[in-house]
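Budget justification note: compute hours in this period were largely spent on complex prediction jobs such as the one shown. Inputs:
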Amino acid sequence: MPGRTQYGMPSNPWRDRYQQASFRGAIFYTENDARASGRRVAVHQYPKRDTPYSEDMGRRAVQHPITGYLIGPDYIGPRDELTDALEKEGPGQLIHPLLRPMQVICTNYTVTETRERGGYCTFEMMFVEAGSDAGSSPTQDTAAAASQSANSTSAFAAGNLNSQVDAFNGTNR
Amino acid sequence: MTLSELKEAMAIVQYFAMAIITTVPGAQTGRQSSDVRRVANDVYTNAELLLRYGTLIDGSHIGDAMLNIVTTAVAAGATFDNMYRVLTEFHNQPVITLPGQAVKDAGIIYLLSALVLITANTTFVSRQDVNSYLTRMLNGFTPSVEILADRGDIENYREVLALQAAMVHDLTVRARPLPTIINYTTASPYPALKLANWRYPDATQSPFNTDLRVSQLITENNIVHPAFCPVEGILLTA
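Corresponding output:
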């Protein structure tokens, strides 16, 4: 049994979550949108063997094909803002009407305006998740760190022993 | 330092010097091995002078001279197994006097450092391989850390603990991407090439080194003839 709004209407949770779509702060309205992903699989097939081996190579990057539009007598300004945002370098925040905000990059877009529909333009946009630059992130050379620690520890112990032997002999260095 | 203290410390230093020579495989031949023998024999001969006067005419001190033997042995290719054996034996050397104890403590720290240096330069093949080293290293570290803590030797305790942490971190990080060893069973003796193609997507190379997968299988299982592998054996998971 769905809940009721303060006006007695059946509540729509999805409508409560609905928000104005935007990319890098440039707003647009959406006609339709989708999410596409999956797993990357390398299928190995061997001679004289019936069973293949599908090797899981990790999750596929999430893609969001979105058809958006802008409308109204002053649509030119928001259209230019959106095209600038789509062409800007680096990842930006995409506010999807029903999903959580995400960091994406626009791989391509097409803006269409027709004579019959004045004051109206449509955007076909393809976004791909930005992710992180894990492949080239610096990692510590732990073996070198261990070697360095070994050298400093033994040098410290050597100095310590020298001092102790001097102390036992009653001499000061 | 009294005469009895000197005698005991001297015995420890001389034992240490002679033991380190045995860590280098084929210690009787080769240029680097002769370097180890030379520095070890120098310390053996001059142990009394080093301990009595703290320094020799050439300016070397007892701590640096002992460390020099270990450093030279590691450079000459001292093995982990031999160094670990010396550490275990050195732990069991009885000492009564303070100078003897100081020399023994320093020797143990040198040996632990040498073990860490050897593992840092070792290329591991499997996770089991790393775990075996790690277990033995911890067995070597634990009594040393306890002794230093019991004696209140704060500075050496802190240094050894930091060294242990660096070693554990290094081995843990390097073990993570390595494959594990598993057992295989086949219905009849297969050729090594067929086994390699059966198990691995690419039998021509390993992702961790330049060995052929076939060569790995032959080496790991001590296969006499590559056309007839035993029906039960071991192989790497990746």
